[in-house]
Specification:
10 helices; globular; two-stranded antiparallel sheet; 2 domains; Arc Repressor Mutant, subunit A; HTH_HxlR; single chain; alpha+beta; WH-like_DNA-bd_sf; WH_DNA-bd_sf; Nonspecific Lipid-transfer Protein, Chain A
């Protein structure tokens, strides 16, 4: 297994379980739960899906987790080869946590879980959503292949992203500072403000008035972009 600094450590799984709840089952899905199924582990991985973050940034995005538990989860995910710890080069020179290439592959797992779980009528979309969650949700619920390309900025109080729609694929990267070159910009204090527009299909003017969403750019393009996303049907 890899430690957080990326070195290989010989570890006897039976003597050092990742979280003390090994199922003794050869099923791949069962083993996946051994790797990322402990409370908060998947959330930590999710927050790192858009790139490396400092410890304080991860904790700020997950206000329900304690510093102790976050430290433990990062250490266990490091032992599993999912997360590495590294120093950013100058002038930043700060320690960050980042998913390994294998760790990033878990996005497909999260997307499949998301598409499956939101079909439940018990899912509550009004609960708080982190900015990374919102961006991953859009990547998950992109249901229609676009016949146009666009750059779309999403500006929230705690995080900012640029989405690039090209050849029917949607990718995101964090923005340090918006430069005003995007075709569209969605701005809101909370990412929950975009949900009534993208998934509820409420008229844009209504969402701006009722949920505090601001949109800059071609509003027809905004509606075309919004039309690409849809939630799967609820189970009966």
């Amino acid at each position: 297994m890899k430690s957080l600094n990326g070195t290989i450590e010989a570890t006897d799984r039976a003597q050092e379980p990742l979280h003390g709840r090994w199922y003794g089952d050869a099923c791949g899905a069962s083993f996946a739960m051994e790797l990322m199924g402990e409370r908060w582990s998947l959330h930590v991985m999710r927050e790192l899906m858009m790139g490396p973050l400092r410890f304080s940034q991860i904790r700020a995005n997950l206000p329900g987790i304690s510093a102790k538990v976050l430290t433990e989860r990062l250490e266990k995910l490091g032992q599993a080869g999912v997360v590495v710890r590294r120093m950013l080069p100058p002038p930043a020179s700060v320690q960050v946590y980042e998913l390994t290439p294998w760790g990033y592959e878990a996005e497909e797992v999260m997307k499949a879980l998301g598409r499956w779980s939101v079909r439940s009528r018990a899912h509550d979309p009004t609960l708080p959503l982190t900015p990374v969650s919102a961006m991953l949700s859009l990547r998950t619920m992109l249901r229609v292949r676009a016949d146009f390309d666009a750059t779309v900025d999403f500006l929230f109080a705690t995080d900012q992203f640029r989405g690039t729609l090209k050849n029917g694929e949607l990718t995101f990267q964090r923005l340090v500072e918006p430069d005003g070159t995007a075709d569209l910009t969605f701005a809101a204090a909370s990412p929950n403000a975009v949900l009534p527009y993208f998934y509820g299909k409420r008229p844009l003017a209504d969402v701006e008035r009722d949920f505090g969403l601001s949109v800059f750019g071609d509003r027809d393009l905004a509606d075309r972009f919004c039309s690409l996303f849809a939630l799967p049907p609820k189970v009966s």
